[in-house]
Design goal:
Main location: membrane
Keywords: Membrane, Transmembrane, Transmembrane helix
Helix content: over 70%
GO molecular function: basic amino acid transmembrane transporter activity
Number of strands: 0
Number of helices: 10
Membrane topology: Multi-pass membrane protein
Catalytic activity: L-histidine(out) + L-arginine(in) = L-histidine(in) + L-arginine(out)
Radius of gyration: 22 Å
Shape: globular
Largest sheet: none
Length: about 280
């Protein structure tokens, strides 16, 4: 069954957004595993993000949404919990490796890098092999996101426009209030989660933080907002979805700020390295 172009575009953008949110956690989980540390993340950032995801999960359950929506909300919450487990597990593991000797402890404090595993190791990999190892996971994630959009388009061509059983006016009013409450609560939580991470970055200079986490978050929020706008530009519809639009837009702004922090500290570190090498020569 054919569907109109606006609905198809909205579905494709929605599929891409879901793809972004499925892979958004993977780069940071991988980064933590490689460094054997989760200190690049703010604990409050992850906890508040988890509260936002739990809010979405509760809303999906209360509203009786499709099982796929509930599963996705549960998946997001599980990924948040995995990040928290990584942070505290690597802290615990590092404490076990710390010797009680005061001299050793002092040397660790002054000389040990902020993040375990950040010390370069001698390898026999070529430049192309290192690049492949570094970017292959991200390339796979991007391909998955694109495939999500294509799959959504394919599903749209074969889906009908059937509607569920109509609700009574009282049910509609109750569900509308519930949706708005959940929407604005999630928006505030997602927005607030970035603040502690931004302050954390000033201290850690974004060490141990994967920029792909925020790149995919930006892509997910942008495509999600566009999918809402593509579905309809009627005032009533936009007002009803105002919490998600506002939350997505403001979160994108803060995520861009985090990326600016990341690239600023990376460029500053590169300049310092060049100055040191220039002084030695």
């Amino acid at each position: 069954m054919l569907i109109d172009g606006d609905k198809m575009l909205s579905t494709i953008l929605g599929g891409i957004s879901i793809g972004c949110w499925i892979v958004v956690y993977s780069p940071q989980i991988l980064e933590n595993y490689q460094l054997q540390s989760g200190e690049g993340l703010s604990v409050f950032f992850v906890i508040i993000w988890l509260l936002g995801d739990l809010c979405n999960l509760g809303g999906a359950l209360l509203a009786g949404l499709l099982p796929t929506v509930i599963i996705l909300a549960l998946y997001y919450s599980i990924c948040d919990i995995i990040l928290l487990i990584q942070i505290y597990y690597y802290r615990w593991a590092r404490s076990l490796r710390t010797e009680p000797n005061s001299i050793t402890a002092e040397r660790d404090t002054e000389e040990t890098p902020l993040l375990v595993g950040s010390t370069p190791e001698c390898t026999h990999e070529t430049g192309s092999q290192r690049l492949l190892k570094l970017y292959a996971p991200y390339a796979a994630a991007v391909l998955f996101v694109i495939a999500s959009g294509v799959f959504s388009w394919w599903i749209s061509l074969r889906s009908g426009n059937g509607k569920g059983a109509p609700q009574s006016p009282s049910e509609l009013e109750t569900s509308e209030w519930t949706i708005q409450l959940i929407g604005w609560s999630s928006a505030v939580l997602y927005l607030g989660s970035r603040i502690p991470q931004i302050f954390k970055n000033f201290k850690t200079k974004c060490e141990g933080l994967s920029p792909a986490l925020f790149l995919f978050a930006i892509a997910g929020n942008v495509t999600y907002a566009l999918s809402i706008c593509a579905a309809s530009m009627e005032r009533e519809y936009l007002v009803r979805n105002g919490s998600w639009l506002a939350g997505s837009a403001l979160t994108v702004f803060l995520d861009i700020f985090v990326l600016c922090q990341f690239f600023y500290y990376r460029s500053s570190g590169s300049r310092e390295s060049e100055e040191i090498l220039g002084g030695e020569s």
